[in-house]
Structures are given as structure tokens and as C-alpha cells.
């Protein structure tokens, strides 16, 4: 068995990039014992193109047709899709936005201090993450929320090696509170966490089946792209993600898949590489 070193004073193993955990880790900050194997989930080993995937969900996706807050039916459907991906054998992580509750940029536009507004937006993502965790566990999929802003009575703090351990134990990891810093979007947080987790790709869930040259709901002549390079996205200002997120993906050779989450079961097609989607890479 490979030995994993402990840093002086550390209670859990320090991992080098790409190193996987073995053995036990201490009980987490939510009182759960991570040395117990989850039960009730069977995982398949089908022909998956992506075996470790981070899914970016916007806050707007969680509110459905409501003008604000959460649509529990939509949250349950999204949880079922994520649970299905886990059952297929994929190691799944999620970054959720908070725009259905509060958006930092909107607060700043109304005269609020930008950093304060961004922190409020991060707290909104924690609320969404907890709702998604509840729906996932109701669907039979073990899930953990890890927040970049520490709140130990609510969820676990974000620690990279702990997140990796949860993934390897076939738990869905939900990253909340963005990067923990103002002035960064949850798209950038999704790209960052995907790189830290060693994901094969980041899948951005939207309401359309890929990237278009313009909003297809407003412009019937909008051109749809099957594949794009990172440079194309930046040069054409397509605004799939913010520039920082795309540049981070480019510098780390992380594919970005843009797909529609409105079609039930579409996430499984993404995993198999058969979804109608836009792939950004190269």
C-alpha cells in the first residue's frame, strides 16, 4: 500500500497533485464518518467518455419558471440526472450559482459595495447547494457540500484532498461559495475546481443545446457551433463563460462542454459523448 505522508500537526493526509487517497481520514466537520462506505448506490461501468466531470449549474436553472428562488420539482429533476450520472460510474462534482437569489453584479449596479455584494452572492450559492444536497440524498445519491467560505455548522470547508476523497468514495461533491473571493464568477470557480479535481471536462448546463453566435431565442438566424477553440470564444466574444474562466480552461487544457439541462437524461449523453452540445477545446 502506498504511504501518504502527514504534514507536522496535520490530522489528515497532504496530497500531491494527482495523488489519490488511501486508508482513513478523520470524521468531517458535519459529524459524518468518512471511513464508512456509502450504501444503496450501484455504479455501472459503461462506455463513458468522461469519468470525472464537473457540472456547472446556474442559479437560474434551479428556479425553473419561477421568477425567484427554487422550483423544487426542477431541483429534484436535476438531482435525478446527477444521481444517474453517479450510477453510471462517473465521479461527479457540481458548482452552483446563486443568481436565483442574489447576484453580486446587480447589487453593485444599485450602489452596493461590489465586494459586499459578491459575498452576498456567495452565500446564495450555499443555500442552493444545500437544497441540491437534500434532493440528491432523497434520490439515493450521497452528497457533500464543501464551501469556500467556512461555516462548519452548515457544511464542510473546502479542502482539496477531502473533496478528492469524497469523489473516490462515490459521493457527489457540491462546491459552494464560488472561489471564496469577490470579483470572481462561479464560472471561474467551476473551471478552477475542475482543474483542482483533475476532471476530464467541465460541463456547463444551459437552456440551449450549445453555443450560438447570438441568442437563438431572439435571433432565428443565429449560428450554432459544434466545436470551438478557446481563442474563438474569446475573439468572437461569445460569452459562454467569462474571459477569466475560458483563459483558465485554455491554459490547463480543460475541455468545456455546453449543453442543455432542460432535456431529462441529457447529462448521461454528455458523459458518453453523444449529446447535442458544443465542445470548446484546442
TrEMBL record:
It catalyses: UMP + ATP = UDP + ADP. Pathway: Pyrimidine metabolism; CTP biosynthesis via de novo pathway; UDP from UMP (UMPK route): step 1/1. Gene3D superfamilies: Acetylglutamate kinase-like (3.40.1160.10). Keywords: Allosteric enzyme, ATP-binding, Cytoplasm, Kinase, Nucleotide-binding, Pyrimidine biosynthesis, Transferase. Its main location: cytoplasm. It comes from the Bacteria. The keyword Cytoplasm applies. SUPFAM superfamilies: Carbamate kinase-like. ATP binds at residues 56-59, 99, 103, 206-207, 212, 215. It is an enzyme of class 2 (transferase). Belongs to the UMP kinase family. Homohexamer. This is Uridylate kinase. It comes from Hyphomicrobium nitrativorans NL23. The gene is pyrH.
Amino acid at each position: 500500500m502506498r504511504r501518504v505522508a502527514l504534514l507536522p500537526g496535520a490530522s489528515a493526509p497532504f496530497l500531491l497533485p494527482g495523488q489519490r487517497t488511501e486508508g482513513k481520514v478523520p470524521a468531517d466537520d458535519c459529524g459524518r464518518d468518512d471511513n464508512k462506505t456509502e450504501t444503496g448506490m450501484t455504479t455501472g461501468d459503461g462506455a463513458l467518455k468522461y469519468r470525472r466531470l464537473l457540472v456547472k449549474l446556474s442559479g437560474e436553472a434551479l428556479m425553473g419558471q419561477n421568477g425567484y428562488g427554487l422550483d423544487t420539482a426542477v431541483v429534484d429533476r436535476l438531482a435525478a440526472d446527477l444521481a444517474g450520472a453517479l450510477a453510471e460510474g462517473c465521479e461527479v462534482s457540481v458548482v452552483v450559482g446563486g443568481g436565483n437569489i442574489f447576484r453580486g453584479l446587480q447589487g453593485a449596479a444599485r450602489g452596493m459595495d461590489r465586494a459586499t455584494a459578491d459575498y452576498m452572492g456567495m452565500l446564495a450559492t450555499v443555500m442552493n447547494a444545500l437544497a441540491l444536497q437534500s434532493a440528491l440524498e432523497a434520490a439515493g445519491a450521497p452528497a457533500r457540500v464543501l464551501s469556500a467560505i467556512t461555516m462548519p455548522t452548515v457544511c464542510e470547508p473546502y479542502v482539496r484532498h477531502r473533496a478528492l476523497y469524497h469523489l473516490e468514495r462515490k459521493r457527489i461533491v457540491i462546491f459552494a461559495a464560488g472561489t471564496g473571493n469577490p470579483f470572481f464568477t462561479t464560472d471561474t470557480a467551476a473551471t478552477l475546481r475542475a482543474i483542482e479535481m483533475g476532471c476530464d471536462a467541465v460541463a456547463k448546463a444551459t437552456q440551449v443545446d450549445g453555443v450560438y453566435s447570438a441568442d437563438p431565442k431572439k435571433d432565428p438566424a443565429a449560428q450554432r457551433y459544434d466545436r470551438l477553440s478557446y481563442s474563438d470564444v474569446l475573439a468572437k466574444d461569445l460569452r459562454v463563460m467569462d474571459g477569466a474562466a475560458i483563459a483558465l480552461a485554455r491554459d490547463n487544457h480543460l475541455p468545456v462542454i455546453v449543453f442543455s439541462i432542460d432535456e431529462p437524461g441529457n447529462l448521461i449523453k454528455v458523459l458518453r459523448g453523444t449529446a447535442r452540445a458544443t465542445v470548446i477545446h484546442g
